[in-house]
Amino acid sequence: MDDVKRTIKTGILEALPLAFAIAAYGLSYGVLATEADFSLAASVAMSLLVFSGAVQIVAVGMLASGASPASVLFTSILLNLRNLLYGAALAEGLAPAKKWRWLLSFGVSDEPFVLGSSRFKKYGPDPLYFGIVAGVFYLAWIISSLIGALVGNQADPQKWGLDLAFPITFAALLIPSLKEKPVIATALAAAVIAIGFEYFMPGNEFTIMITGVLAPLAGLYLKRRSLNA
Predict the structure, then answer these.
(1) Among 155, 154, 100, which residue's Cα sits nearest to residue 130?
(2) How distant, in Å, are the alpha carbons of 29, 31, 116, 227 from that of 40?
(3) What is the value of pTM for the model shown?
(4) What's CA 167's distance to the chain center, in Å?
(5) Which domain holds residue 73?
(6) Among residues 152, 176, 200, which one ends one of the domains?
(7) Which of 137, 193, 141 is closest to 30 using CA atoms?
(8) What does the pLDDT look like over 95-109, one tens digit per residue?
(9) Residue 170 burial (CB count, 10 A)
């Protein structure tokens, strides 16, 4: 019982800093959804059922511009393809929770992956920790989405810098993991590709997806060279 309490406490404490950044991002989503004429119920329901900041913001923008449901669905699938890789990487750490893995899979996303994978490397499989972390993030996202939708047009996310809160915090979490050469090469390649696209084709909506596909190739190349050396 003491171990369970300790795990719950650790999960909450380690998730809280990033939860505040997620909340700032959630406020931005709520405001944008209201500006796109989403009802309060629709805005919150989307957060309850989708729970993906990038997908929700992109979907709201596309729907507001008159995009078809099919194109929104296709784009959403592309944006969330990375979660398949996250799930595969987390599978061993979540294996003990045989009956609850279907529920824990709903929490697989960028932030829980970073904290969960770090925890599994240090202490081995720990589904409870992952569940606590994902739960904290889920609550932060739902509550902030509701507040953002209630505030509506009275707030400007870009004016207050809320749109930068999550990327900056997430980058701060990733920096300590940049230790091995393949990982560093992937990060540098991502920076070069993203900056290059933004310089030559500013505002390109495919920059993130192309960077996500190409950057890991640099890390895989170095990894293969080290194995063959």
Answers:
(1) 100
(2) 12, 10, 32, 54
(3) 0.74
(4) 9
(5) 2-176
(6) 176
(7) 141
(8) 998 888 889 999 998
(9) 16
